[in-house]
């Protein structure tokens, strides 16, 4: 298996993009985020990366976190790439404020289950 496709690397990609996105909007009001083209596009791109990395995780690892809506995470990436106009501001803010922090917690637990992670 290529190291870029390893679960360790994919979990790091997910962690990095979630942490970076949360940090980049720290202190910003929701209205400021959606009004900022740069922040909105950065959030969309980070979600695409998280979605793609989640899709590449092995089933056994995703199954260790059954409360995480993996199909939705993978699906949102496809929506952003192909039907971006269907994703409204409320959905994007919900992903940012609720779902990404929840996923970040799950990633921390998953990292502890995978050999080769320093978590």
Task: Kindly provide the radius of gyration, computed on alpha-carbon positions and rounded to a whole number of angstroms.
Answer: 14 Å
- Strand content is under 5%
Mean pLDDT: 93
Structural class: mainly alpha
Give the CA-based shape: globular
Give the termini distance in whole angstroms.
Answer: 21 Å
InterPro entries: HepT-like, HepT_RNase_toxin
Pfam families: HepT-like (PF01934)
Keywords: Hydrolase, Nuclease, Nucleotide-binding, Phosphoprotein, Toxin-antitoxin system
GO cellular component, one term: toxin-antitoxin complex
Description:
By secondary structure, the chain is mostly helical. It has one domain. The chain is built from six helices and no strands. Helix 1 packs antiparallel against helix 3, helix 1 packs across helix 6 and helix 3 packs across helix 5. The longest helix is centred in the last third of the chain and has 25 residues. The mean pLDDT is 93.
């Amino acid at each position: 298996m290529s190291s870029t496709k390893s679960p360790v690397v994919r979990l790091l990609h997910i962690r990095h993009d979630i942490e970076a996105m949360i940090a980049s909007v720290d202190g910003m009001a929701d209205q400021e985020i959606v009004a900022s083209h740069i922040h909105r596009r950065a959030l969309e791109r980070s979600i695409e990366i998280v979605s793609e990395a989640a899709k590449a995780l092995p089933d056994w690892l995703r199954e260790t976190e059954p409360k995480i809506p993996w199909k939705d995470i993978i699906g949102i990436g496809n929506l952003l790439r192909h039907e971006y106009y269907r994703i409204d501001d409320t959905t994007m803010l919900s992903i940012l404020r609720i779902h990404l922090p929840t996923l970040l917690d799950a990633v921390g637990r998953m990292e502890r289950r995978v050999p080769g992670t320093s978590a």
